[in-house]
Write a structure and sequence with these properties.
Length: about 90
Amino acid sequence: MKPITGITRGGTPYTPEFVTDLNQARCIGCGRCYKVCPREVFELIERSEDDEAYDEDEDNTMVMSLANPLDCIGCGACGRVCPKQCHTHQEMPA
């Protein structure tokens, strides 16, 4: 399979990088990635009580998860807005 490439409006070629993982231990549940994603790839869920970052007295009882990672279009917006750099992106393998 040939790698996916695209061309910007200005004619510059680029290779999209798709979200493959989300580090929930680092996630603060701010929802920024959810808000910028045009494809509903993310979902805000309750943090597991087994999670070391869980503290029911804190505001961080929610965490982001990958709900539909195969719907990712590789725009990278989620990684650019994340204050904790929780997302891992990769090019589509050849």
